[in-house]
Amino acid sequence: MHGTETNGRLHEMITMRSWLLLLLLLVSLCSPAPRLSDKDICLLDNTKLQQRLKLLQDLLQLCELQLKDILGNNYHGTKSKIFSARRSIQPEILLPTTSGNLIVYDQDCSAVFNSRKIENGYYRIRPRADREPFLVYCDMSDGGGWTVIQRRSNGKENFDRKWADYKQGFGQFQGKNDEYWLGNEHIYDLLVREENSLKIDLMDWHGERRYAIYENFQIKNEQDNYRLWFGTYSGNAGDALSGGSNFEEQWSASLSGMPFSTSDKDHDRFLAGNCAQENKCGWWFNRCHAANLNGQYYKTGNYTGHYDNGVVWSTWRGLWYSLKYTAMKIRLPSFVDVGSGNGKSS
Ligand SMILES: [Ca+2]
User: Fold this and answer.
1) What is the pLDDT of residue 290?
2) Which N-terminal residues, if any, form the signal peptide (predicted)?
3) Is 226 left (phi over 0), alpha (psi -120 to 50) or beta?
4) How far, in Å, from the CA of 292 to the mean position of ligand 1?
């Protein structure tokens, strides 16, 4: 009996100890982690902030690199490889000519220039081996090697034409002041191989000149209505292709991403009307434009009327001034002026 009682107490004590241990364990598990001191919190915040700072510093460095690239990459400089997304050369362009023609044509005016033909003038070029060569004016000044895709200089040529004419091209290809549109198909063929820069030369009726350069000038094919794309602007005429300085102007007049329109093929964003009809020409219209170099040739400079349909570059001379001279010309950004030696341009 006594032995049994002692055993019972011992058992009771062990059970109590076990419970106590379990309780202690539970308490230690459930109690909150030791509270961080203000100093620890501060240190932790500091580490997080330093990590964010590092990220921002990296970003800043990247932006500085990009800015340096943009500033250093003028139109006759060498294109940086870091940020240029070169498009691959289309296989059909590499096909050999099937015509049996022994005359080898240069692909563009840069190639003409590089083959030591450095006089301004009309040359027959052939951007695609599977298509016929065609005449174009090569501007061998201004660093040389420019293929001119559009020119206005005297108002003699009619630019109020339909889709088919703008597709094939029209105008005179003889005199140094002849006006023409090279044709959307030819322009597409010239642009499709590689990234090109576009330079726009402008002159008003007082003989004052301005220019605008756009990097990575592209148009899509006819299925996509020769849709326009362009990159960074530089120059002293203002970025009229982008529509103007404020958001509202850009919304209605930025030509970036716009398809080509003619009076018989309205692809503009002006739902209530036809920009090409109002402007009497083919162009990449939005609602409608802040720049239209194919517009009506008003020999007075300033003009009035229902529509701002002159030869317009609004960021320089406004919408109601029609320019005397315009030329749109293209060249590879990597084109190196091998002719003049000193790299200066007029
Ligand atoms: Ca429309």
Assistant:
1) 96
2) 1-32
3) left
4) 16
